[in-house]
Amino acid sequence: MSTVALRWLHRNLFAGPFDAALSLVVIPILVWAAYAFAHWMLVEAHWEVVGGSLKVLMTGIYPSDQLWRAWFSVGTLCAMFGAGLGLSVRPGRAAVAAAASAAAVIAALISAVIDLTSGMLTAASTALGVAAWVGIHHSGLDQRVVLSGLLAGVLAIFVVLSPPGFEVWGGLLLSVVLTIAVSILTLPFGILLALGRQSRIASLRVISTAYIETMRSVPLILVVYWIWIIVPLLAPDTSVPSLLRGMAGYALFFAAYVAEYVRSGLQAVPKGQIEAARSLAMSTWTLNVDIVLPQALRVVVPPLVGQILDIFNGATLVFIIGLTDFLRAGQMILADPQNSGRTYEIYVFLFAVYLAIGGAITYASRRLEAHLARGTR
């Protein structure tokens, strides 16, 4: 064992008597737990239940003959994620190689579990994401152009997926699309609420404050269910799909939290800059868009990303309005008597997917935060 490793062990695990005793107790327990889990995962677990139910887990009850639409959405989502990374993360050789290796392993597993076509489509979608990452980073495109392209990608996903009907959307695809759509909707609405709460117009300030405090005082499940019920009452002659009503409930709820995050960022902007802009006779719109909001949003990147994770994890509540999200799809599989004994396999797979997506979002947010911090030095 090298001197560096011994020094690290002494500094982090055996620095004092209490640290040494704690390490001698905890490390064997962790080793035993890791061995037991690895033995179960590689020897005892029956993963064929996941492979046989992967279509339900990924797309719910979406028609099998229309799955090309789902694959188009997967490719678009990968390209969007890669483009987002390209704005703030430099695609180094090691990072690209790691992404390509992970994609190759996932594609090989899908080819072995499902079929070769699905594995090839997975590899192509991931390659598209990596290409977008590298291409956007080296193209030098303006951020506004890229953001417009991301919005166009979301619109394209809705247009392509919608012909079979919103009610058949499900699985992981529904959870991801719901998260992206709600995140996009809540940002401008939350910014308007934050500006309204600090407005000099008393009525606008009171209305914005009342809305924010009301939404923050009730649970998400109540808002989603309330919007789902009240829309048909207000528009009885129109048929609004449950998915759109659910998205509206999520957007209305989380916009209040975005407003508070943005308000904290607005308060961090030096007042001297605002006074200087007003002394130059800048309009309120120019002041907010060009000076205040860019600095405020830079400050609140961490809570805004945490909000995206909250939306993704909270997507499980759509089951109350009859939709089948990723977690609900797993529960549907376990409801089959043939799969009732495979609880561990299904929930371990769900945990791994949630962890992977959450980790990817967190990694991207940290790199974005570091990129924005460099711009302030």
Description:
This protein is mostly helical. The chain folds into three domains: 3-44; 45-62 and 164-377, MetI-like (MetI-like fold); 65-162, no CATH class. The protein contains 17 helices and one strand. The chain has helices at residues 3-12, 17-44, 48-52, 54-59, 67-86, 93-113, 116-139, 143-161, 171-197, 202-216, 220-234, 242-268, 271-279, 284-299, 301-314, 326-335, 343-374; one strand at residues 324-325. α5 runs antiparallel to α8. The longest helix has 32 residues, at 343-374. The chain is globular and about 70 Å long. The two termini are 41 Å apart. The model has no long low-confidence stretch (mean pLDDT 83). It is a multi-pass membrane protein. Keywords: Cell membrane, Membrane, Transmembrane, Transmembrane helix, Transport. The chain crosses the membrane at residues 21-42, 68-87, 94-114, 120-138, 145-166, 172-196, 217-236, 242-262, 304-324, 344-364. This is Amino acid ABC transporter permease. Residues 172-365 form the ABC transmembrane type-1 domain.
List the helices and strands and how they pair.
Layout: H1 3-12, H2 17-44, H3 48-52, H4 54-59, H5 67-86, H6 93-113, H7 116-139, H8 143-161, H9 171-197, H10 202-216, H11 220-234, H12 242-268, H13 271-279, H14 284-299, H15 301-314, E1 324-325, H16 326-335, H17 343-374
Give the CA-CA distance, first to last residue: 41 Å
Low-confidence stretches: none
- What's the count of strands? 1
Note the total helix count: 17
Total domain modules: 3
- Strand residue percentage: under 5%
Structural class: mainly alpha
Portion in helices: over 70%
Q: Describe the main β-sheet briefly.
A: none
Architecture of the largest domain, CATH level 2? Orthogonal Bundle
Q: Can you identify the CATH class of the largest domain?
A: Mainly Alpha
Name of the CATH homologous superfamily of the largest domain: MetI-like
Categorize the overall geometry: globular
The oligomeric state of the chains shown is: single chain
Order of helices and strands: HHHHHHHHHHHHHHHEHH
User: What do the pLDDT scores average to?
Assistant: 83
Organism: Bradyrhizobium septentrionale
Protein name: Amino acid ABC transporter permease
Family: Belongs to the binding-protein-dependent transport system permease family. HisMQ subfamily.
InterPro entries: AA_ABC_transptr_permease_3TM (IPR010065), ArtM/GltK/GlnP/TcyL/YhdX-like (IPR043429), MetI-like (IPR000515), MetI-like_sf (IPR035906)
